[in-house]
Amino acid sequence: MNLIVAVDKNWAIGCNNDLLVSIPADKKFFRTETTGKVIIMGRKTLESFPNSQPLKDRKNIVITRKKDYNAKDVTVVHSIEEVLEAVKDYKSEDVYVIGGGEIYKQMLPYCDLAHVTKIDYAYAADTYFPNLDADPEWELTGISDEQTYYDLVYEFCRYERKK
């Protein structure tokens, strides 16, 4: 299973249920990686999308504790066990965890590949991703050239779980 995330220099990912910044090349990378695939997210992540609508051309799976939660064109599950059951018939490389903070933390043990856009800036934030650089189970296996968007500097990084 994969995960895809954009983090700032402190591994922050969001504030007030929104992304820290919107970088067109990062959005394009996300779209390219996840289109035609399965995406796993929390309820708040789904609700942060325009009109709380699922992302098109993907199988959207939402994890929520709300037992009566219902959303159009998504598969709703209520536990990690249920989400693992829901994706068991898909190839692991076709499944992406896309957030938010709690879902990343809970799903990280099931992921072997992480696509991390690292932004060289520290934002005010209330949601964080685990620091993979400090996790001995993960190693940086690829990094893009430095990219810029106006005055922001960022890199696309690839982390893999050590075998």
Structure description:
- The protein is an alpha/beta fold and 163 residues long.
- It has one domain (2-161): Dihydrofolate Reductase, subunit A (3-Layer(aba) Sandwich).
- The protein is built from four helices and twelve strands; from the N terminus they run βββαβαββαβαβββββ.
- The strands form two sheets. Strands 1, 4, 5, 6, 7, 8, 10, 11 and 12 form a nine-stranded mixed beta sheet that branches. It has a three-stranded antiparallel beta sheet with strand order 3-2-9, with no helix packed on it.
- β11 (147-149) and β12 form a beta hairpin.
- The model has no long low-confidence stretch (mean pLDDT 97).
How many domain units? 1
Tell me the helix content. 10-25%
Which ranges are low-confidence, i.e. pLDDT below 50, for 5 or more consecutive residues? none
At CATH level 3, the topology is Dihydrofolate Reductase, subunit A
Q: SSE order in H/E notation?
A: EEEHEHEEHEHEEEEE
Rg from Cα: 15 Å
CATH class: Alpha Beta
So, the CATH homologous superfamily? Dihydrofolate Reductase, subunit A
What is the typical, i.e. mean, pLDDT? 97
Number of helices: 4
Give the amount of beta strand, in percent.
35-45%
Compile the SSE list and pairings:
Elements: E1 2-7, E2 12-15, E3 18-19, H1 24-34, E4 38-42, H2 43-48, E5 59-63, E6 75-77, H3 80-87, E7 95-99, H4 101-107, E8 113-119, E9 127-128, E10 138-143, E11 147-149, E12 152-161
Parallel strand pairs: 1-7, 1-8, 4-5, 4-7, 5-6
Antiparallel strand pairs: 2-3, 2-9, 8-12, 10-12, 11-12
In a nutshell, what does this entry contain?
This protein is of the alpha/beta class and 163 residues long. It has a single domain (2-161), classed as Dihydrofolate Reductase, subunit A (3-Layer(aba) Sandwich).
